[in-house]
Write a structure and sequence with these properties.
The protein is mainly α. It contains 5 helices and no strands.
């Protein structure tokens, strides 16, 4: 996704209330887990790319845990705290937001690894003209673009407000 498209989408979402952002993100979680990751796994299998298939399976398990933490713990608290002084929850919210951002940094590393797989596949496709390889590259690219948008929404609009107060303290 070109950076100007990402910034445009983020600008549109910047005025959304927290509850609407959370609803969007939870729907995104379902899309990742039920559609995009299985499609990537299937495409990797069809392309007979064992290392990528294993990596996507591991990524799937990791994201399931991350999304579960967000949906069951972090998001409900953030929604309930919108427009309220967090008071005694301030430190716990800061810890949770730092933890989620730390996970996102790890996800960014995983996306760079997926990009390396993508480059490797692109080279082999140019030699072999493989349709299954093209589908896999497109799948990896779609996933990476959506993940970057997803992480940017969470980091900017959900987590940063609590981390800014930490920086000011």
């Amino acid at each position: 996704m070109p950076i100007h498209d990402l910034e445009r989408e983020l600008e549109e979402m910047s005025v959304w209330p927290v509850e609407r952002l959370v609803q969007y993100l939870v729907k995104d979680h379902e899309t990742f887990l039920k559609m995009e990751l299985p499609r990537m796994q299937d495409s990797a299998r069809k392309a007979s790319h064992g290392p990528l298939t294993q990596f996507v399976e591991t990524l799937n398990a990791e994201l399931r845990g991350h999304f579960k933490t967000e949906e069951n713990i972090v998001f409900p608290v953030l929604v309930s705290m919108e427009h309220k002084d967090p008071g005694s929850l301030q430190q716990a919210l800061q810890y949770a937001c730092r933890h989620m951002e730390s996970d996102h940094q790890m996800h960014e590393k995983h996306l760079r690894l997926l990009a390396a797989f993508q480059n490797e596949l692109q080279e082999s496709i140019e030699k072999e003209r493989s349709d299954s390889g093209i589908a896999l590259i497109n799948s990896l690219d779609d996933f990476a673009r959506r993940m970057y948008l997803h992480m940017s929404i969470e980091n900017r609009f959900l987590f940063q407000p609590y981390l800014k107060t930490e920086d000011q303290a």
